[in-house]
Batch of 2 targets.
Target 1
Amino acid sequence: MSAIEPIHVIGGGMAGSEAAWQAAEAGVPVILHEMRPVTGTFAHRTDGLAEMVCSNSFRSDDDENNAVGLLHWEMRAGGGLVMAMADAHALPAGGALAVDRDPFSAAVTAKLEAHPLIRIERGEIAALPPADWSSVIVATGPLTSPALAEAIRGLTDERALTFFDAIAPIVHFDSIDLSKAWFQSRYDKGETEAERTAYLNCPMDRDQYEAFIDALLAADRAEFREGETDTPYFDGCLPIEVMAARGRDTLRFGPMKPVGLTNPHAPEKKPYAVVQLRRDNALGTLFNIVGFQTKMKYGAQTEVLRMIPGLGNAAFARLGGIHRNTFLNSPRLLDDRLRLRAEPRLRFAGQITGVEGYVESAAMGLLAGRIAAAERLGRDLPPPPETTAMGSLVRHITGGADAKTFQPMNVNFGLFPPLDAVRGGRRGRRERYKGYTDRAKADFTGWLALSTASAAAV
Ligand SMILES: Cc1cc2nc3c(=O)[nH]c(=O)nc-3n(C[C@H](O)[C@H](O)[C@H](O)COP(=O)(O)OP(=O)(O)OC[C@H]3O[C@@H](n4cnc5c(N)ncnc54)[C@H](O)[C@@H]3O)c2cc1C
């Protein structure tokens, strides 16, 4: 190995594999610690690096009209190992990128093993890294081993690390029908106008409520996987369909209670129930449905939620779910270089930072690897602009999202600063998406030049 001190990467999944590759390609030696096969998880089956634990899809590959496709584009442009190996082992899947998982993982492993600046050590890191590891990337994923999770929690505080995500569906603001919904906080509470109008309310009459409950009770649900429920999740985050099964009025006295609200579209009519949505990002482009975590299957979820008045044409930035997932309260804990504020030698990447999905996790690995390598070489590399897919994600998790309600996030156009010139509507949406991706590609190319210059200057 070279005279430059190594970066230690903990976890050889999507994020850790990409981070190790990027740092090594920038000329910095890496020691990659992966606990499998010595210690396993309930979801991984192999000892391969970058194992895909469930579906074999990297989702849409459309880099002109889709935010995930754009993220693919940015990772390819950035010399991403995970994307290169996914492309090399792609399976026919229409507009999506499906991957032949075992050859893909074997190829990522072989590339990392063959890199002259990378050493792979097998075994669990079961405590905080020793003090002489001066640059560490923790990429241990949603199933971080309990011992390491506890150690990280000890560094932060009780509420800093979560073991289950309870995700309420998130809706694009511009798809909400404001002729039915209205802005108002319960009892008009709040010091400022913004606080008094912090919620969007969707009213239901009795017939609509009863039909909604019937649909909820009949909807298909996803099951927990074996081993997934070894940590209790039921405090304060019951799925709505479970609440409905406990009694037809449970939701009306819970997240759908109609009190303290007056519908300006029909002031004389008291709603029988009200669904509330709350702003989910600082830009105000995304709203989450308050208290609506659910295990309904995605198809059923879309159908049932579109029964809510005002959400008939809702476009979902992400659907709800409840899963085993270890993740940090990143908006509070991490700076924009993905460093733990309380201990900056520790940087985080992947799903543990509160992004969700193979592609998003690998993308955060790419960023962490490049930023850590630049730092090792005496340079400061800022994250990409927020107009790019990677930049918008990193901005969301490290500050754009509300820390109090933070839940994992997929990349989506709702995270991007709006384009002023292009207006709404279905036709407008396609134009807008193309506008986002054109702007992102130009800005990401600029950032890559900066990133490469920062490595070359040393
Ligand atoms: C059951 C399940 C199903 C999922 N299905 C999908 C899906 O279909 N599609 C999708 O996009 N995403 C899915 N995800 C999310 C998926 O895990 C992430 O998208 C992606 O794998 C996260 O990448 P990562 O690198 O952050 O974590 P991982 O890929 O999980 O990698 C983390 C690595 O760290 C290792 N590790 C953990 N603790 C330690 C330690 N203390 N010391 C050393 N090594 C350690 C693990 O063995 C693992 O190899 C699923 C997650 C789970 C749990």
Target 2
Amino acid sequence: MGEVLSFDESGEIKEKRHCCEQMTERINYKCSQHPNVFDCPDNLMYYSPRFNEYGIIIHDGGSSYITIDYCCWCGVKLPESKRDEWFDRLQELGFGNPTEQDIPKEFLSCEWYEKT
Ligand SMILES: [Zn+2]
Ligand SMILES: [Zn+2]
């Protein structure tokens, strides 16, 4: 279990295959009544493409989730979060407060670590 995090990641989230059927289903779950995943009480899992991390959504009215290290269903070890690297990299680029600043587009998705 990690710390409680809060981020607005309302950008588009591409469908992606995860460790197992259950996880994939949960993360790609879309509710017609709640376009924002954090507003829907039926949503349990969250995947952050920019950090490559998984979390359990906390329904407190914000966009919070608790990061998890293992899949709740198949028990597989999930990938290492790239959160620290994300902040380090942006710091190097001169973004000291990236959650408040206009950061390069690739940092809003998995692009920044997937392209070589
Ligand atoms: Zn809903
Ligand atoms: Zn799984």
